[in-house]
Structure formats: structure tokens, C-alpha cells
Amino acid sequence: MVDMDRISVSLPTKLLEEFDKVISERGYACRSEAIRDAIRDYIVKHKWIRSLEGERIGNISIIYSHHSPELMKKLTTIQHSYTDLIIATLHMHLDHEHCMEVILVRGDAKRIKELTDKLASQKGVKYVKLTVMAPGGKIPE
Hints:
alpha+beta
């Protein structure tokens, strides 16, 4: 038998409703197993990103609430600290509440991850996705 710990998590109602829909669509027997799978996926992605080394190119996609106090200023300040990595940014208004930014980056993988973590940890940031690859080389046809 596997040791189990019981935890309590507070979630916004809409987020839980969406999660329950996914659980149903995927055929999970219970929320607990779906949450365990989500946590496993999060850990695997974290370990993969942490293992990256050397020169990388890629993008960081962020969705955030533009109504969060001081958030845009904080995001801009963080980005100004990484001008050596950031090649370009694209800002898009998704709806009345949310904006999306796509940040194109090139540089050391560890610094790209550091930038991603700083952006993701800001209150009001809803979603962050980092996509990276090695620069150059021939892309298979």
C-alpha cells in the first residue's frame, strides 16, 4: 500500500467546474486521481525545464488579468531586467479582463527559466507556458 497524505485546496468555483468537466471527459473515477496526475505532470515538466542547459530559443506565453494592481508595472520591470534574453514581445487583449503576452527569447536556458519563474510567480498571472528548443541546426523535413 502506498502512503497517502490528505490535503485541502481552495479553488475558485469556475476553475473547479472546468476541472470536473475534464475529469468526466477523461473518465477519472475521482478528483483525487486527476489531481495526482496533474501534479505528476507538473513535476515532470518542472524537472525537464530545470535540466535544460546551454543556448536556447523559444517563447514564453503569459495570460494575466490586467486589473491586478501594479501587475503590468511588475511584469515590465521584470522584463527590463532580462533585455539580454528578450528579442521581442507581442501584447494582445483577450477580453475585458485578460491580456496575453508572448515573449520571444534567446540565450542561456537557466536564465530563460529564471525569467519564466519570475513572471509566473506574480499575483494576477493566470497561465504561463515556456517553449524552448536548441537554436540552429537543420530541421527535419
